[in-house]
Amino acid sequence: MESKDWFLLTTLAAIWGSAFMFIKISAVDFGPILLVTLRLLIAGLVFMPMLLRKKYRKMFKSHLPGILIIAVFSNALPFTLFAYASLGATSNMLGILNGTTAFMTTIIAYFWLQESISSKQLIGLAAGFIGVFILVNPANASSTITASICALVGSLCYAFNGNYLQKHHSKSNKKVLIGWSMFCGGLFMIPLAAFNMPSSMPSINSFMALMWLAVISTGIGYLGYIRLISRIGAVKTSTLTYLLPVFSIIWGAIFLQEQITIIIFSGFIFVMMGMYFANTAPKK
User: Fold this and answer.
1) Which pLDDT score is estimated for 121?
2) Which of 88, 113, 240, 252 could disulfide-link to 144, CB 3.0 to 4.6 Å?
3) Measured between alpha carbons, how far is 221 from 46 in angstroms, rounded to an integer?
4) Is the pLDDT of residue 171 over 90?
5) Under 8 Å CB-to-CB from 107, ≥6 apart: which residues?
6) Which of 23, 37, 48, 51 is nearest to 188 (CA)?
7) Can you tell me the mean pLDDT for 75-99?
8) Quick check: 102 and 272 in contact, CB under 8 A?
9) Cα separation of 37 and 105, whole Å?
10) Is the predicted pLDDT of residue 283 greater than 70, yes or no?
């Protein structure tokens, strides 16, 4: 990869790693439902100037089934689950548990796509589940059981979506799929948000956190992600998954003064091992 590709990859990992911190900041004031609704609608608007171009408008109808599925399983549902998880977990825990997406993807691909699993991937799965067991236990004061389950189910949604894209949309236009799925995901959430309004006006910090989440982490972040895939390919871009938990820990420690306990560090090591080995492609 060229130096500018490394820069974009690292910058994107830092931006996405910060998302867990800003979810933690804003979810309390907005509430998970309204936060996700506004995040998706605003992020969709970032894509809108591009999506309304003639060549992309023509693709909307043919991409609509995929847009609706992705809107639910890659946006509305996992975003909401992670927002609820933030009410009972530290941001570094959210980032680490999000890393379980890598080996969940491997498991789903084995059963759904009939992809083989190598011995290294089995080691990765074992290490990953050990990491989850370490993190999701009553001795870990950094997260409640409910918050951990929400984060794990959210990661499972991401894993399903990755396999769904591979199976049904390998040749589809990613800009159309991702952009419209964000906006549609926000539209789906509006009826729920109407019944889950905050009792008081959110703080300025919460509004700023929302705007970062929507515009930078979600809107511009996914535009950078699409560009990175077009430049270096999906496989090399997937190394982002290794950096997200690292940055989530760094940002949480710096800005939220979250402690990195022995339990968190131990679980982090096993989850990172699981991510590494689970992403090892089996020999043909």
Assistant:
1) 86
2) 88
3) 10
4) no
5) 125, 159
6) 37
7) 95
8) no
9) 26
10) no
Whole-number Å distance between alpha carbons of 157 and 137: 22
N residues, the chain: 284
Residue type, 213: L
Phi, psi values for residue 203, rounded to 5°: -75, 165
To 5 degrees, how large is the angle CA 272–CA 258–CA 128? Answer: 20
- Could you tell me if 216 and 16 are in contact, meaning their C-beta atoms sit under 8 angstroms apart? no
The answer to whether the beta carbons of residues 151 and 89 sit under 8 Å apart is yes
CA–CA distances in Å: residue 70 to residues 81, 109, 161, 176: 15, 17, 7, 11
Average pLDDT of the chain, as a whole number: 91
Distance CA 258, CA 255 (A): 8
CA angle 69, 25, 195 (to 5 degrees): 55
Is the whole model's pTM more than 0.90, yes or no?
Answer: yes
3-state secondary structure of 143: strand
**Three-state DSSP class for 120?**
helix
CA atoms within 13 A on the CB side of 181: 25
26-62 burial: b if 16+ Cβ within 10 Å, else e: bbebbbbbbbbbbbbbbbbbbbeeebeeeebeebeee
Buried b (16+ CB within 10 A) or exposed e, 111-120: eeeebebeeb
User: What is the SS3 assignment for 89?
Assistant: strand
Q: Pinpoint the alpha helices (H) of 60-118.
A: 60-70, 77-85, 91-98, 101-112
Look-up: residue for tokens 């011995």? 119
pLDDT at 1: 67
